[in-house]
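Person: Please work through this fold.
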Amino acid sequence: MNPFSGPAEDQLAKALTEIEAMQEGLGKVEAGLRDATSVVRSGDAAVEVTVGSQGQLIGLRFLGGKYRTMGAAELAASVLDAATRARDTMSRRVMEAFMPFTAPMTSLPNSRGIEVDWAALFGPGVLEDPEATSTRASRSRLRDEINEDTED
């Protein structure tokens, strides 16, 4: 008896159709993200950073003239703040775009899907609330500035 005849053959055909749809969907997601960018201003609005879909820094703008009066450590903290938040924003966008492809296949009973450790892939910031990330970065910058003041 052929194990792929009757209901099993139908189930296999459904699974193959679902796999083909997933491949097509993945192609669309990849194409949509290829030129995607994330633009974020630092919390103090001194700089604006643009990152690409792989988190790479592709743009940095100094806004207004505020950067001229900032110390080196303060300006560096602003750049890092914006770059980190832009990268985390883009990582969340990529994660959300690919998440549907990790779900169990509906055509295969007992399929478990794919478990992805998003934090290991993109860093822990991808799982954090964007507002919490901004607040944490601001507190970190304040600590840096306080530490900088004690060295004088």
In short: Confidence is low (pLDDT under 50) at residues 141-152. The helical segments are 7-34, 72-98, 118-122, 130-151. Residues 64 and 121 are 35 Å apart (CA to CA). The longest helix spans residues 7-34.
